[in-house]
Amino acid sequence: MEGPSLKCPLTTLRLSLDVVLSNGNQAHASELEIAVQRYGDTGSMSLTGDLDDAQTEIFAARLGELIQESTIRNLTLDMQDLRSIDPAGLNVIRSVWEAADHSGVEAILLRASYELRFALEESGLDRVLPVVYECPDAARGL
After folding, report:
1. CA–CA distances in Å: residue 29 to residues 91, 115, 126, 127, 137
2. pTM (2 decimals)?
3. How far apart, in whole angstroms, are the C-alpha atoms of residue 130 and residue 97?
């Protein structure tokens, strides 16, 4: 008899926002893809695209749900393919990391791109959260 599988199916949520300017032109569409995987007691979230004010609410909800799962003891947030993040997104990360810490979940930010590294340094998050900028042995994506 085979035991339960530790690998759960990949869950992907793709959000996009089309902005139409008052003159009728369409502005740059903001898009964020959130992929979540679970392996035993570890939850992993990968972000692709742009995390701005339009997506922070759903990002906060998905990240919060992940740390509230009773089986999750470790959390990784892979930011390798995240192109940009605004202050609202940084605040979500800060508050969710505090909640994770209070609930006993060990959390780490992984593979922040060069652009995001600057945002993390400017916000001071790199000094209060564990951040690993390079993971040469890690598989790309989930």
Report:
1. 22, 19, 29, 32, 33
2. 0.73
3. 10
Nearest to 118 by CA among 142, 93, 71, 84: 84
Residue 28 near residue 73 (C-beta atoms within 8 A): no
Domain boundaries, the chain: 11-15+29-132
Residue-wise pLDDT tens digits, 30-73: 688 999 999 899 999 999 999 988 888 999 999 989 888 889 99
CATH for the stretch 11-15+29-132: 3.30.750.24
- Residue partners of 51: CB distance under 8 A and separation at least 6: 32, 59, 82, 84, 85, 86, 89
Report the alpha-carbon distance of residue 60 to residue 33 in Å, rounded: 13
Beta strands per DSSP E along the chain = 11-17, 30-39, 42-51, 74-85, 106-110, 131-132
Structure tokens at 114: 């060069």
Q: Which residue has the tokens 């509230």?
A: 68
Structure token digits, residue 60: 């906060």
Cβ count near 2 (within 10 Å): 4
